[in-house]
């Protein structure tokens, strides 16, 4: 792969120019008929993975009509001023649930590098200074680790996945994917730091895996699969049962 170039500001992955700042008083767009769940992300790479995960966990749900995303509803991007993945996931899910009136699932995630003490961590999306500049973020990270030997290049993807309903039910699950950082990017799939993280036990980077292979082992896959019973319970019951843990998959009509 050639030396990565900084992302264009007009990159479709993160076109933030269209979005107002959360809390600026804009009225939210009403959710379309049939919408049941909001995926509260503006990252198209994440969105694609989340859609696949929801569809796999709930094949009977008409995901096309029932699952909408924050961008398509015109929801503003929440200010991610939490200091943990969990806090930021909750901030995003709460904002989307309040603005749409629907249950919302958000993910906050990032790359935690051992030798950097867990950085970029919650700053992963803006490590180079520009939010969502994936290639610039990757290039900076590789330069910072230029002198680090292979045995010290351990790292992990981390994900907190949050479900928030408009009436205040909240649940968070976590997932990690451990691996080693390559010195050069490899692969065209995925997004973000995928071209440099080689999961433990594999000879490929995450960007060289199919979407299905990545989802099966990824931090996001693990967190979202753990969250899905809670999501399904909320969708089926209309709201979570008071004082009881969400039920596992049940044979109920949508
Ligand atoms: O907040 P939203 O709108 O969901 O989109 P975002 O891209 O800003 O998402 P985060 O705030 O959670 O930041 C996550 C960053 O961590 C990196 N990242 C997270 N998951 C990743 C994955 O599966 N593969 C590669 N990089 C990932 C990537 O740089 C992301 O931009
Ligand atoms: Mg973000």
UniProtKB/TrEMBL annotation:
Q: Provide the active-site residues from the annotation.
A: 108
- UniProt KW Magnesium keyword: yes
According to its UniProt record, which reaction does this protein catalyse?
XTP + H2O = XMP + diphosphate + H(+); ITP + H2O = IMP + diphosphate + H(+); dITP + H2O = dIMP + diphosphate + H(+)
Annotated residues that bind substrate are located at 41-46, 109, 191-194, 214, 219-220
What does this chain do?
Answer: Pyrophosphatase that catalyzes the hydrolysis of nucleoside triphosphates to their monophosphate derivatives, with a high preference for the non-canonical purine nucleotides XTP (xanthosine triphosphate), dITP (deoxyinosine triphosphate) and ITP. Seems to function as a house-cleaning enzyme that removes non-canonical purine nucleotides from the nucleotide pool, thus preventing their incorporation into DNA/RNA and avoiding chromosomal lesions.
Q: Where does Mg(2+) bind?
A: 108
NCBIfam families given in the database record: RdgB/HAM1 family non-canonical purine NTP pyrophosphatase
Q: How does it assemble?
A: Homodimer.
The cofactor remark states: Binds 1 Mg(2+) ion per subunit.
Q: Where is this region: Disordered?
A: 1-33
Q: Which portions of the chain have biased composition (kind: Basic and acidic residues)? A: 12-21
Query: Which UniProt keywords are listed?
Result: Hydrolase, Magnesium, Metal-binding, Nucleotide metabolism, Nucleotide-binding
Q: What InterPro entries is this protein classified in?
A: dITP/XTP_pyrophosphatase, ITPase-like_fam, RdgB/HAM1
Named cofactor requirement(s) = Mg(2+)
Q: This protein is called what?
A: dITP/XTP pyrophosphatase
